[in-house]
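From the shared-data thread, chain only:
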Amino acid sequence: MSALFTAGAFRAFEMAAADIPALQRFFEANPEYHAAVTGAPPRSDEAQKEFDFAPPAGWPYEKRWLLKLVAEDGSIAGLADVIENLFIAGVWHVGLFMIATALRGKGAAPALYGALESWMRDGGAQWLRLGVVLGNSRAESNRNGQFCSCK
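Structure, as tokens:
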């Protein structure tokens, strides 16, 4: 399977059902996001719920992408939940962008997000929406638009 995009040593692939156990291990090894958002560690079915997620009935969209961001050693280094053409053509929504705790401060997040943004733009994105959960202070500090240069 070829990568959807690369960012340095990282590669992005669409997740499959076979990836759910590895995604669960990733969530459990990196519990900070869930702790910040829900006040608790990830549940034992967190990966399955993430994999099965769909926008609410009646919301028009073309495709939901759940991307695993893979390190050189094959481990999951992060994930991105992207909805293509949400509500109208050309509007793409990033509902979750999560990078392994061990990679913080090492340039992985900006490199991966930049590559993700380029991939979305190449796929037809004209506007990007980045979802930020209130209480997630790391994400809130970046919601000033510095990530989105698509328009």
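The domain at 5-140 is CATH 3.40.630.30 (Aminopeptidase).
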